[in-house]
Design goal:
The protein contains nine helices and seven strands; from the N terminus they run H-E-H-H-E-E-H-H-H-E-H-E-H-E-E-H. By secondary structure, the chain is an alpha+beta fold. It has a seven-stranded mixed β-sheet. Strand 4, helix 7 and strand 5 form a beta-alpha-beta unit.
Length: 197
């Protein structure tokens, strides 16, 4: 994974002094595509754009951390309207849980990346706090995290529950409604018990 989004000489302190948090817009698309291509080794802007289109990323309600001097983005949380039933193998892994998820209004955390110089500085929490009111419009927030990434415990600390895993990634979900989380945990547990025997 790319360490820095740009080949610039900006230091952590220099960036922290000039970082602002705001909603993304469609005018940020080129900068976002550049970051996605570098971070996830996507071969072209067209491929990265296709991912955003397929996952229905909402560029009016995603969040960016940007340098107010030149508007370059140094952190993004991309949010999409993409159901876990379509965006993961949940239907094959646990059809009962997939059926339950179809009843929920879902939000997908497509990508959450921060330039390495700004990691561990609390920027992630500022970005998440900016998203909080938007999150609460949904029953469930879910994300897939590739196995080789070191962020699995991060999502668990934020209250995300691991739903299942396949050869590529682990899938996590969170709800602000305790009853919804209880339903998910019960169906997950019942499926696990069924597969033990």
């Amino acid at each position: 994974m790319v360490r820095h989004f740009y080949n610039d000489n900006k230091t952590t302190n220099d960036l922290l002094d000039n970082i602002e948090i705001s909603l993304t817009s469609y005018s940020d698309a080129e900068n976002i595509l550049e970051i996605l291509c570098k971070t996830f080794e996507i071969p072209s802007f067209e491929d990265a754009l296709m991912q955003l289109v397929i996952t229905n990323v909402d560029l009016n309600n995603s969040i960016k951390a940007y340098d107010k001097r030149d508007n370059k983005i140094y952190g993004i949380l991309l949010l999409g309207h993409f159901d876990i039933n379509r965006g993961s193998p949940l239907q094959r892994v646990n059809p009962f849980l997939a059926k339950l998820f179809k009843t929920f209004n879902q939000l997908n955390g497509h990508s959450f990346v921060i330039d390495e110089r700004l990691r561990g500085c609390g920027l992630d929490k500022k970005i998440l706090n900016k998203s909080l009111e938007y999150f609460k419009q949904y029953d469930i927030i879910w994300c897939g995290v590739e196995h080789e990434l070191n962020t699995h415990n991060y999502w668990k600390r934020l209250g995300f529950v691991e739903l299942f895993s396949n050869h590529n990634a682990k899938f996590y979900a969170k709800s602000f409604d305790k009853n919804i989380m209880l339903e998910i945990l019960i169906l997950k547990l019942l499926h696990h018990e069924k597969n033990i025997y």
